[in-house]
């Protein structure tokens, strides 16, 4: 296959790029140097019309194929267009996120983060590199497709519940786009395997906080105070009933309380208690039910303990839902490129979240996982200080994204041969 050979040929450059991004991670909304490095790479490739500072430090880069335009524009695979759109130019979008996490790296890599306490622990250094690799391949095969490919380099994916994708959309990232694709490295899949499923693939992610305000007193005279810690403990216990007794057991849902702060000394009755947690769901009705039940439980415990308090619920990312035809198309493309053994239809979604969901709410598309763990190696999870990624999959990701775009735009058959 020509595109496979071309992707392998640029692998050494991709490895160096990835290491550069890994050494210099930047947190959400601080991706200034990362964005500038992406711009320099795109300018070196040439052929792209570029917009910078989109939605913060985001970048939109477009390349238009030079293949002869047929009498009617191509019909995007899996996404029929109306007669009114039949002659409209087609635009396919590919997206990568750029931000890092507040984690102190513990990989021992020669290219470890030089920014103390900041690390590309979610593989976004891979994502940037892969999309830049796809940019090179699209430039090389520009004569083999017609229509436009828009590359979206997005900031602030980790900034839940806000996320950077919504701002990119507001500033035109999806204007005129007929299909959108994204990729995430995935340590739970074998290295090089592409996984995708129709419908929900990742969960909606919400955040809530609870504050109880009682009255402190001497630990020897608890009757003279109002113990906020006990109220908080009651809330933690009561919340377990939501999943066990209020949710349809055939529908998934998770409620996790990750913060419980109360008390200052062993012999003082705490006068305040603060809790924070997350809710993960796939079904909008389950999502709404859990929010209502959390608030009801809070109010009952607050009033039952004669306290003051506050409950806040922040809706974050919606569920990543792949268009069924686009999911099939992505897996077919991966199978053609790498062999059927490397294209896996996922049986189960993940409770993790991604703001790529907001692109899929606007435009048909698919979000795929690219496995990174070699056989026999330990599976270090994303967001772990030990997550080291896998540079051997960079060329695969670049070939896949470029092929998805070109096939959607009716690329010349020699690209896949």
Task: Describe the model.
32% of the residues lie in helices and 25% in strands. With 417 residues, it is of the alpha/beta class. It folds into 2 domains: 2-200 and 320-416, Aminopeptidase, CATH 3.40.630.10; 204-317, 2-Layer Sandwich (Alpha-Beta Plaits). It has an 8-stranded mixed sheet.
Please bin the fraction of helical residues.
25-40%
**What would the average pLDDT be, to the nearest integer?**
94
CATH architecture label of the largest domain: 3-Layer(aba) Sandwich
- In the sheet with the most strands, the strands line up as 1-2-4-3-5-16-6-15
CATH-defined superfamily of the largest domain: Zn peptidases
Shape: elongated
Q: What oligomeric state do the depicted chains represent?
A: single chain
H/E topology pattern: HHHEEEHEHEEEEEHEEEHEEHEHEH
- Total strands: 16
The radius of gyration is 24 Å
Terminal-residue CA separation = 4 Å
Report strand %: 25-35%
**Uncertain spans, ≥5 residues at pLDDT below 50?**
80-84, 411-417
Main sheet attributes: strand count, strand direction, barrel closure: 8 strands, mixed
Q: In the CATH scheme, what's the topology name of the largest domain?
A: Aminopeptidase
How many distinct folded domains? Answer: 2
SS element count, helices: 10
CATH class placement of the largest domain: Alpha Beta
User: Would you tell me the structural class of the helices and strands?
Assistant: alpha/beta
């Amino acid at each position: 296959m020509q595109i496979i050979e071309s992707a392998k040929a640029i692998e050494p450059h991709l490895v160096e790029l990835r290491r550069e991004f890994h050494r210099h991670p930047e947190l959400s909304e601080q991706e200034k140097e990362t964005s500038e490095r992406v711009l320099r790479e795109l300018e070196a490739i040439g052929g792209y019309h570029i917009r910078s500072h989109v939605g913060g430090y985001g970048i939109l880069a477009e390349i238009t194929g030079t293949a002869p335009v047929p009498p009617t524009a191509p019909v995007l695979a899996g996404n029929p267009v109306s007669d009114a759109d039949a002659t409209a130019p087609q635009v396919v979008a590919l997206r990568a996120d750029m931000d890092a996490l507040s984690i102190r790296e513990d990989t021992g890599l020669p290219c470890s983060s030089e920014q103390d306490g900041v690390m590309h622990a979610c593989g976004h250094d891979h994502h940037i590199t892969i999309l830049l690799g796809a940019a090179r391949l699209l430039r090389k095969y520009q004569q083999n497709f017609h229509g436009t490919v828009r590359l979206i380099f997005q900031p602030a994916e980790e900034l839940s519940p806000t996320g950077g994708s919504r701002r990119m959309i507001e500033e035109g990232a999806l204007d005129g786009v007929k299909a959108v694709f994204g990729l995430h490295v995935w340590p739970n899949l074998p290295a090089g395997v592409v996984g995708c499923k129709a419908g929900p693939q990742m969960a909606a992610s919400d955040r809530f906080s609870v504050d109880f305000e009682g009255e402190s007193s001497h630990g020897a005279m608890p009757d003279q105070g109002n113990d906020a810690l006990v109220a908080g403990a009651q809330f933690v216990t009561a919340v377990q009933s939501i999943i066990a007794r209020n949710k349809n057991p055939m529908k998934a849902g998770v409620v996790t309380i990750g913060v419980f702060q109360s008390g200052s000394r062993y012999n003082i009755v705490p006068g305040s208690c603060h809790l924070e947690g997350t809710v993960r769901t796939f079904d909008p009705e389950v999502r709404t039910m859990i929010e209502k039940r959390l608030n009801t439980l809070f109010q009952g415990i607050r009033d039952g303990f004669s306290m003051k308090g506050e409950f806040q619920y922040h809706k974050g990312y919606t569920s990543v839902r792949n268009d069924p035809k686009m999911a099939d198309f992505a897996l077919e493309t991966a199978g053609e490129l790498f062999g059927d053994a490397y294209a896996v239809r996922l049986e189960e979604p993940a409770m993790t979240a991604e703001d790529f969901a907001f692109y899929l709410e606007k435009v048909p598309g698919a979000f795929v996982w690219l496995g990174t763990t070699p056989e026999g190696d330990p599976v270090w999870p994303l967001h772990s200080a030990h997550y080291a990624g896998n540079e051997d999959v960079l060329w695969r990701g670049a070939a896949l994204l470029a092929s998805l775009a070109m096939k959607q735009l009716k690329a010349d058959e020699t690209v896949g041969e």
